[in-house]
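Incident log, support desk, overnight shift.

02:14 A customer reports that sequence design results differ from what the structure should imply. Their input is reproduced verbatim below. On-call engineer (initials T.W.) acknowledged and began investigating.
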């Protein structure tokens, strides 16, 4: 099943050494011995990493006389890429819808924002003009009362 192969491929690539082996094999095919030269580990340890990559379908080995070179299998990478691409497109569509909604809300605010501000301003000025005596309401023309004055 493709999902199982996909899971094995992602698990295999979770290890940084295996990712590095894949990077090296992307440049050219190599034997276990050639790969082991680049790491501070035994050939047996590198061979175990290659086995995980093989089980995931990312790497295969062939025979060239006594040489057994390893090389990448691109079809598994195609499977991984198509899986990632599907979810990337879905995420982009969601973000696109969110961007459109935010732009619509910003347009609505731009159209209703100043009208709301001018309405509240005119309401405030209307209430001020409706008062019978502005100077009395603010206490500017009234004489000051002392603390002891009962009036």
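02:41 Re-run completed on a clean worker. Output:
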């Amino acid at each position: 099943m493709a999902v199982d192969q996909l899971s094995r491929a992602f698990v295999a690539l979770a290890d940084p050494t295996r990712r590095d082996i894949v990077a090296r094999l992307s440049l050219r095919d190599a034997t276990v011995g050639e790969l082991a030269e680049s790491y501070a580990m035994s050939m047996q340890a590198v061979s175990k990493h290659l086995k995980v990559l093989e089980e995931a379908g990312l790497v295969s080995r062939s025979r060239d006389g006594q040489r057994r070179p390893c090389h990448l299998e691109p079809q598994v990478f195609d499977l991984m890429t198509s899986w990632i691409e599907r979810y990337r497109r879905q995420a982009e569509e969601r973000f696109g819808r969110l961007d459109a909604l935010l732009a619509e809300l910003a347009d609505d605010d731009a159209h209703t924002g100043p009208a709301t501000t001018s309405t509240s301003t005119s309401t405030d000025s209307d209430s001020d003009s409706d008062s019978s005596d502005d100077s009395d309401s603010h206490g500017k023309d009234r004489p000051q009362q002392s603390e002891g004055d009962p009036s």
